[in-house]
Amino acid sequence: MVTYRDIVPIGTGLIIAASSFGLGVVYSSWPYDVNTLWRYEEGAIDVSIAHYQQWANSPMYIHYTLQAVAGLGLLGCFIKLYKPNEDAKYFEYGTLGLLMVGLIIYLTNLRTGINSCITGNWGEVDAATGVNVMAASQVMIVFALVGVLVLQAGLYYAEWYENKLKEEFYKEEAAEAAAAAEKQAKEEEEVQAETQENAETSGAARKTKQTARKRKS
Q1: Which residue ranges traverse the bilayer (predicted)?
Q2: What is the SS3 assignment for 1?
Q3: Dist CA 38 CA 126 (whole Å)
């Protein structure tokens, strides 16, 4: 029968897969963002806008795939938060919080920016500023998703180290119990040997007395 502890690794896998997928999506925009946010190149803004327009005009299943993967990541968090380990629950809460930060940035800054790339309406800022806001937003998403991976890696290490300490403790306990049992067995053998020796000595003394009495009579 499948228990809750058997499902927890699935939740971890979903979180790691969703975070890695999100980092891959952001990575696809890096060649365009680097020329607008980190250094200036002539015509880089137009190239970046064309990139985001292509993203916006992609078939809907592309967007649905991204949303589904994000949903799986949240599902993984909820699986692990259903019955969290008291010693590790803050890792799980932190993971959920960082995932939500990434999703909120995507739904607000990126989706709004992509729509602006299509309509050309950037509100109170110009196109260059809007594109750089999108690029900076993706940098923040990278920090959030990397934070998720770091938390999950830290949680894995903490659980591994705890299990290692428990294993060493149980081994020491077993060794001490075996040594105590061996010592007790030796003591019992010594007591039995001493008792047997005393019995033999008493028997020999009785025989000697009986022999002496027979001789006198």
Answers
A1: 7-30, 61-81, 93-114, 134-158
A2: coil
A3: 18
Cα–Cα distance between 88 and 82 in angstroms, integer? 13
Q: Write out the two tokens for 53.
A: 């327009």
Are 14 and 73 in contact by the 8 Å Cβ rule? The answer is yes
User: Cα(96)–Cα(78) distance, rounded to whole angstroms?
Assistant: 8
Mean pLDDT of 99-114: 93
d(CA 35, CA 47) in angstroms, rounded, equals 9
pLDDT of 1 reads 77
Q: How far does Cα 209 stand from its chain's mean position?
A: 82
For 84, other C-beta atoms within 10 Å of its C-beta total 14
3 state DSSP class of 83? coil
What does the domain layout of the chain look like in residue ranges?
4-151
* Residue ranges in the chain assigned as alpha helix (H): 4-33, 44-56, 60-82, 89-105, 111-119, 127-216
Residue type, 133: V
Categorize the per-residue pLDDT at 147 as very low, low, confident or very high, splitting at 50, 70 and 90. Answer: very high
Which residues, in sequence order, are CB contacts of 130 under 8 Å at separation 6+? 113, 116, 122, 123
pTM: 0.77
The answer on pLDDT for 202 being more than 70 is no
pLDDT of the residue at 207: 59
